Amino acid sequence: MKTIYRLIGTIMCCGLSLASASANNDAVLADLTSNAVDEHSTAAVVNIPRTRQFVLKDGDRHYQVMIKLPKDYRHNSNHHYPVIYMTDSMYSLQVVSGATRFPMNSNMMQQAILVAIGYQRPSKGSASRIRDYTPSHDASWKLPTGEAKRHVAYISQVVMPFVEKNYRVDSQQNTFVGNSLGGLLGAYILLEQPRLFAYYVLGSPSLWFDNKQLLQQFVQRFSQTPAISAKVFIGIGELEKPPYTDNHHMVADAQAFFKLLQSHPSAQSGDLALKLLLIPEADHSMAFPTTAIHGLTWLFKRNLS
Q: Of 85, 187, 288, 291, which has the fewest beta carbons less than 10 angstroms from its beta carbon?
């Protein structure tokens, strides 16, 4: 699974590398314009509309945070918007922004502010995400692990207050979106601080990490967790199981996790709403886009009837 995980981490981090190279874009485009583009063409950098990038600090650590505003944000000055917080910014923002553009702009889905939290700068993305998204220390990993507690504190004490101070937000609809180790981080938040977010979209959560230590904690502690009012969507590709995942039974883990959540009294009362989606023909590299759009549609689809 570590081999597949590192491949996914590389995919997620490649966008960050491209963003870091943005200072060279003008030179590349100038060369392209002079040597390869004919007289009927022009070249320009393409940006995600209504998106700004910030660097927010966690002590001596600096993280890239990108914020995309809804289409009608400036023209609807009295409205407050849900906020969708995402891990793995350069990967997740492009997926979620693209997938929600039509339904949000066509009023089929509630418009929301997108907040994508990146990795510590200037470290490699894989090192930062492995350290920040894992809730326990696993000595079998060469890179540091087990600092999810600190990263959740950064999200809750730095990122969320920054967003709430500078933008019109509906904090009753704060949403967490995470995939792979980001899904593991979301599950950790659900166990330790379930009221931090109202909604959770957990894609292919890496519950196998550290011999399923977090899943074991859920078995031991979740039934004693106070009443929870939340909606939790779990997406998993049907191929995320042996022989595709180095003997990690991610589908079975996701199903076991879902059943644990179903056993909570809040689920039985209806205060904890749950949905599990098994995505046909999807492996770990393919599942997240489907998880994202299905999960966010489940949470934010407008009833137009």
A: 85
Rg of the chain on CA atoms, in Å: 20
Residue 107 identity: N
- Separation between Cα atoms, residue 68 and residue 82, nearest integer Å: 12
- Name beta bridge partners: 115: 67, 85
Angle, helices 2-20/125-133, rounded to nearest 10 degrees: 120
Give the separation between CA 160 and CA 141, rounded to whole angstroms. Answer: 30
pLDDT digits (tens, 9 = 90+) for 203-249: 999 999 999 999 999 999 998 888 999 999 999 999 999 877 777 89
65 alpha carbon, distance to own chain's centre: 12
User: What is the C-alpha separation between 289 and 95, in angstroms, rounded?
Assistant: 6
Measuring CA to CA, which residue among 66, 27, 13, 19 is closest to residue 46?
Answer: 19
Query: Taking the CB of residue 28, how many other CB atoms lie within 10 A of it?
Result: 12
Report in angstroms the alpha-carbon separations of 7 from 13, 44, 115, 126, 186: 10, 31, 24, 10, 21
Task: For the chain, report the end-to-end CA distance as a whole number of angstroms.
Answer: 45
Q: How far is residue 85's CA from residue 147's CA, in Å, rounded to a whole number?
A: 19
pLDDT tens sequence across 148-186: 999 999 999 999 999 999 999 999 999 999 999 999 999
Phi and psi at residue 65, in whole multiples of 5°? -130, 125
